[in-house]
Amino acid sequence: MDKLFQDTQEKGYKSGFISIIGRPNVGKSTFLNRVIGQKIAIMSDKPQTTRNKVQGVLTQNDSQMIFIDTPGIHKPKHKLGDFMMKVATNTLKEVDLILFMINATEGYGRGDEFIIEKLQTVKTPVFLVVNKIDAMHPDELLPIIEKYQQLYPFAAVVPISALEGNNVDTLLEQIKEHLPEGPQFYPADQVTDHPERFIISELVREKVLHLTREEIPHSVAVVIDSIKKMDNSDTINVMATIVVERDSQKGIVIGKQGKMLKEVGSRARVDIENLLGSKVFLELWVKVQKDWRNKASQLRDYGFNESEY
Ligand SMILES: Nc1nc2c(ncn2[C@@H]2O[C@H](COP(=O)(O)OP(=O)(O)OP(=O)(O)O)[C@@H](O)[C@H]2O)c(=O)[nH]1
């Protein structure tokens, strides 16, 4: 159970979820392939039954960046249900950082307008990543950046060429600076993950936050330890650990005679069964891991305006 956390006790380890958004063809996949390398895989061919896809995980000595896709935010022309739109916007609120990627060789368009409108409702820091700078004259860059900066207070603006690699390392450094201190969520050799794993952890986390209201901070983490089909049955066994910061919080999450944990489990199980389309046996554990949040994320919880740093 402690496996995923064993390397992350030392201070200063940074980790977090990064959503890459942008119009089609701006170069999101090219960027990810460059960052994560050839091993990256398309993880699910299920059309948007899931809310987020982990697209790639970059593990370094001092950090882990988990890049996720936010379905629903890229395709403003499609008729999106309220639900998908809400899910997409909620995801943007929950990640640690948003990369809004644009194509420097194209002008500002309707798709960008749609995305910027959604960004107005989130407090998560947003980087403007201006891609394809190799395909333009440097003099053309500044007016584009200025145009976007008038529309949104970006936490950073980073011009790159995902294709040729220019400035990609600088972008990664800046991302790292903006991530909170946190655990290594995935094993170091894992570059991708089944989207279900992330969704399941989010479903459990949602129930914890919902049922405990203000008593448990939003940065509670849920780690999925295993998802296995049980022998000789259609039931899927899911083991997950809820990570809190203090013993008192552990008490709250477990509840009197385990009542709270049981309620979290039974509510989460229903959702997970819907997600996976089969019967689920859910085993939950609670673990205290002191102070894995750093100051930045605590400030965020108290409403610090992140566009200012
Ligand atoms: N010149 C140039 N072309 C690039 C760069 N990055 C991506 N491209 C090209 O732009 C096209 C689209 O790139 P993708 O990475 O597929 O874009 P995407 O945003 O993932 O596209 P969707 O999956 O449709 O959202 C491809 O032909 C890439 O080769 C870049 O930095 N410079």
How are the SSEs placed, and which strands pair?
Elements: E1 14-21, H1 28-36, E2 53-60, E3 63-69, H2 82-94, E4 97-103, H3 110-119, E5 126-131, H4 141-151, E6 156-159, H5 168-178, H6 195-212, E7 221-229, E8 236-244, H7 247-254, H8 259-276, E9 280-288, H9 295-301
Parallel strand pairs: 1-3, 1-4, 4-5, 5-6, 8-9
Antiparallel strand pairs: 2-3, 7-8
The chain binds guanosine-5'-triphosphate (GTP).
Describe this structure in words.
- The chain has two domains: 176 residues, Rossmann fold; 101 residues, 2-Layer Sandwich (GMP Synthetase, Chain A, domain 3).
- It is of the alpha/beta class and 309 residues long.
- The strands form two sheets. A six-stranded mixed beta sheet has the order 2-3-1-4-5-6, with helices on both faces. It has a three-stranded mixed beta sheet with strand order 7-8-9.
- The structure holds guanosine-5'-triphosphate.
- The site of guanosine-5'-triphosphate has 15 residues, from helix 1.
Quick structural gist:
Its main location: cytoplasm. Helix content is 34%, strand content 22%. It is built from nine helices and nine strands.
Which short descriptors sum up this protein?
binds guanosine-5'-triphosphate, alpha/beta, Rossmann fold, cell membrane, membrane, six-stranded mixed beta sheet, KH_dom_type_2, single chain, three-stranded mixed beta sheet, 309 residues, disordered N terminus, GMP Synthetase, Chain A, domain 3, 9 strands, GTPase_Era-like, P-loop_NTPase
